[in-house]
Inverse folding.
């Protein structure tokens, strides 16, 4: 429909135009299911998992728009909310693994490395075991948690994001198996299944089939290794342009995780944060996937859309996160146009 026309039987729901940052797809799906049948309100935990995975719980907790649609009464009995150190597997994983598996927020020198995490704990005088078993984050004393928190803030100083982002709400899912009680851990598992192509495992777990939990652990390990290996390639595959950084992954990084790698790199000290970052990974012999992230004022959706069209591809997205698919062999022309558009000049140039 034209923007200035309305139709009594058509409702245009488009997150690109209305509230792209307020509600995740999981919340919208939940609202639809609940209004279709009030008995579906018991699906609120899945909605919260999606919102946490979409980083809509940061800063002061869930945003005001989300709070309008999801009441405390709905959450009560399904989700417990406390405050603490935001790491992967707060209630279930050994402390060193919780630190090593945490990429958001990124912990320099620790994210992706279990051995470094163990050494980090030893350096600040926190034992990783109680003599027999590995200690979890929730097993640490108040004094140890304060010491760890202070050390993590120091470790994160110099990052583009606030060092205290390490703190936040911890969402514990009531009645779920221990491995799935942390909403952040649950969301990470679903994301790992998606990125590794194991959609069946993710769906079965969401439907309450916990017989696949052992398989899900293998998925997490595979995903963690993929991310760790990919991040190690950033330094050797990065090209610094005048107005942006470009990660030429080719076949070395899967197109399924290139966006995640770009996000992590931009939120760490791996690249210059004042410039947008573009990751390019081969999809097949004919197509290249582009993932773009930015912390600045430029509108990546518009820039990526225009640049991809000029090389015979297509793309779009949001202001700070966008993507495209372009023909293989057009990479150099594409980044030249991107650099030109970012500098405010005409991107319609010969490549």
């Amino acid at each position: 429909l034209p923007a200035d026309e309305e139709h009594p039987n058509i409702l245009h729901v488009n997150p690109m135009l209305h509230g792209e940052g307020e509600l995740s797809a999981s919340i919208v799906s939940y609202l639809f299911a609940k209004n279709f049948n009030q008995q579906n309100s018991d699906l609120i935990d899945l909605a919260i998992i999606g919102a946490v995975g979409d980083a809509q719980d940061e800063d002061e907790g869930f945003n005001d728009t989300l709070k309008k649609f999801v009441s405390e009464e709905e959450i009560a009995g399904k989700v417990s909310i406390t405050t603490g150190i935001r790491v992967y597997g707060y209630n279930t994983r050994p402390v060193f693994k919780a630190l090593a598996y945490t990429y958001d927020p990124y912990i320099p020198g620790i994210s992706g490395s279990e051995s470094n995490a163990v050494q980090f704990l030893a350096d600040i005088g926190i034992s990783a075991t109680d003599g027999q078993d590995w200690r979890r984050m929730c097993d640490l004393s108040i004094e140890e948690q304060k010491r760890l928190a202070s050390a993590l803030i120091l470790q994160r100083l110099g990052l583009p994001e606030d060092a205290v982002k390490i703190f936040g709400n911890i969402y514990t899912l009531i009645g779920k198996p221990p491995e799935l009680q942390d909403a952040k851990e649950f969301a990470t598992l679903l994301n790992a299944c998606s990125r590794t192509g194991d959609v069946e495992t993710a769906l079965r777990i969401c439907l309450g089939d916990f017989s696949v939990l052992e398989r899900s652990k293998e998925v997490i390990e595979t995903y963690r290794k993929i991310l760790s290996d990919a991040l190690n390639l950033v330094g050797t595959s990065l090209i610094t342009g005048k107005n942006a950084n470009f990660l030429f992954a080719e076949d070395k990084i899967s197109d399924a995780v290139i966006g995640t790698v770009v996000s992590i790199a931009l939120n760490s000290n791996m690249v210059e944060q004042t410039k947008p970052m573009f990751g390019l990974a081969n999809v097949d012999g004919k197509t290249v996937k582009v993932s773009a992230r930015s912390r600045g004022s430029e509108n990546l959706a518009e820039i990526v859309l225009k640049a991809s069209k000029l090389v015979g591809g297509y793309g779009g997205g949001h202001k700070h996160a966008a993507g495209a698919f372009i023909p293989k062999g057009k990479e150099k022309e594409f980044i030249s146009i991107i650099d030109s558009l970012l500098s405010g000049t005409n991107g319609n140039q010969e490549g």
Notes: The two ends are 36 Å apart (CA to CA). DSSP finds 14 helices and eight strands in the chain. Strands lie at 79-85, 167-173, 238-240, 245-250, 277-282, 287-293, 314-317, 321-327.
